[in-house]
């Protein structure tokens, strides 16, 4: 029987985003300029709906491009996305691959993180990782190694080690029956900001 592990939330490793950050910051800066202009020139006839639309774009840019994050704790892979944070028990991961996004299968569902990914061309030509534990050389990026390759190897290594600690074999009945395989937490702050921005935009059309 698999042993239940206690996760104290200690971060083992964080992975940086491979794309979208520059675009996200540019969108936020542009949105902020338009919002400030809307407030400054409101009495001069600046359209309120334009400022409200810019605010919505800025919020969406932050929530979709800058907020997402990916890290690993003692026992979980944590994927922070636009509307929720998903905690996937490492030992319960059934399949995992980095394509244009990171795709993880656990608890009979697919979970996606946009933090790490490959270009469409790179995703078509990327190698498939063989089964078994990753070698020590795969635990750190080497010269010329694509960062997505490093992330994929590192995550597979952490998953393999978690399975060994739990005493489960991939695809076994015990593996598929691991309790608390996935925990989801709604992201209230971005949800409230997006909804509030949409409502403000709708109201602005009638002012």
Automatic annotation (TrEMBL):
The membrane spanning regions, by residue number, are 22-42, 48-70, 187-206
Q: Which domain of life is it from?
A: Bacteria
Keywords per UniProt = Membrane, Transmembrane, Transmembrane helix
Decide whether keyword Transmembrane helix is in the record: yes
Q: Which protein are we looking at?
A: PH domain-containing protein
**Origin organism of this chain?**
Nocardioides zeicaulis
């Amino acid at each position: 029987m698999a042993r239940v592990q206690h996760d104290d939330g200690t971060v083992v490793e964080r992975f940086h985003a491979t794309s979208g950050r520059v675009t996200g910051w540019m969108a936020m800066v542009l949105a902020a300029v338009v919002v400030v202009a809307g407030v400054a020139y409101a009495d001069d006839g600046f359209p309120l709906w334009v400022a409200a639309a810019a605010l919505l774009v800025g919020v969406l840019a932050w929530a979709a491009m800058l907020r997402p994050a990916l890290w690993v704790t003692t026992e979980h892979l944590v994927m922070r996305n636009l509307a929720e944070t998903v905690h996937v028990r490492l030992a319960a991961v059934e399949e995992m691959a980095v394509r244009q996004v990171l795709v993880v299968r656990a608890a009979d569902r697919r979970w996606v993180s946009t933090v790490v990914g490959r270009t469409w061309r790179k995703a078509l030509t990327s190698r498939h990782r063989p089964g078994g534990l990753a070698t020590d050389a795969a635990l750190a990026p080497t010269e010329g190694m694509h960062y997505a390759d490093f992330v994929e190897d590192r995550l597979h290594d952490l998953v393999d080690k978690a399975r060994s600690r739990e005493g489960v074999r991939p695809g076994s009945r015990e593996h598929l029956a691991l309790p608390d395989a996935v925990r989801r937490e709604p992201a209230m702050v971005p949800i409230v900001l997006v909804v509030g921005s949409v409502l403000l935009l709708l109201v602005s059309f009638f002012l």
